[in-house]
Amino acid sequence: MLWGAKKIHILLFKRYPEELIPSVITVHNILSGNGLVKPQKRSRRVKPVFPNFDPKKCNEVWSADYKGKFLMGNKIYCHPLTIADSKSRFLFTAKGHYKENFQSAKQEFTKVFRKYASPNNYTRTTVVPLDL
Questions:
Q1: CA 110, 113, 116: angle at the middle one, nearest 5?
Q2: Whole-model pTM over 0.85
Q3: 5-34 burial string, b = 16+ CB within 10 Å, else e?
Q4: CA 8-9-12 angle, 5° bins
Q5: CA–CA distances in Å: residue 123 to residues 12, 18, 105, 114, 120
Q6: Is residue 31 part of a domain?
Q7: Domains in the chain: how many in total?
Q8: Burial classification of residue 85, based on how many CB atoms lie within 10 Å of its CB (0-12 exposed, 13-18 middle, 19 or more buried)
Q9: Which helix (H) or strand (E) covers residue 62, if one does?
Q10: pLDDT digits over 79-105, tens only?
């Protein structure tokens, strides 16, 4: 079993009066000063091998994404779909759907395409097939 500053602090708290117990940081500094603490491994951020898209001008690439669900007051989940321009970050739509499915996404894309025309390319981050 590994013993760190928090566990030792709890053990001391159970055995001695509160005014005699050092803080967790002090316990850690004592352990560290005696070479009993190994530094934690830092998780590295993984750099993408290549960018998914790098638009040079507006309306070149659009992004579509369901932003996760949340429970509404009527006890039904809402799944918000957003469609945005990847360069300007202009939000074409943010529409709540009852389900993440092809039919609702297609209806929303159709409305956006009719109002704003279609982009040269689009990317998506959902598992819903959006091939129109």
A1: 145
A2: no
A3: beebbeeeeeeeeeeebeeeeebbeeeeee
A4: 85
A5: 56, 58, 14, 18, 11
A6: yes
A7: 2
A8: buried
A9: strand 61-66
A10: 999 999 888 889 999 999 999 999 999
SS3 29: helix
Residues 111 and 72 in one domain: yes
Residue 55 lies in a domain: no
Are the beta carbons of 62 and 92 closer than 8 angstroms?
yes
CA-closest candidate to residue 63, choices 79, 81, 86, 93: 86
Domain contains 131: no
Query: What are the residue ranges in the chain where pLDDT is below 70?
Result: 1, 48-53, 119-132
Task: Provide the 10 A C-beta neighbour count for residue 84.
Answer: 17
Same domain assignment for residues 68 and 119: yes
Same domain, 33 and 66: no
100 and 65 belong to one structural domain: yes
Residue 15 structural domain: 1-38
Residues 60/87, Cβ–Cβ less than 8 Å: yes
- What CA–CA distances, in Å, run from 92 to 11, 52, 98, 105? 58, 20, 19, 13
Q: Which residue has the tokens 């005014």?
A: 19
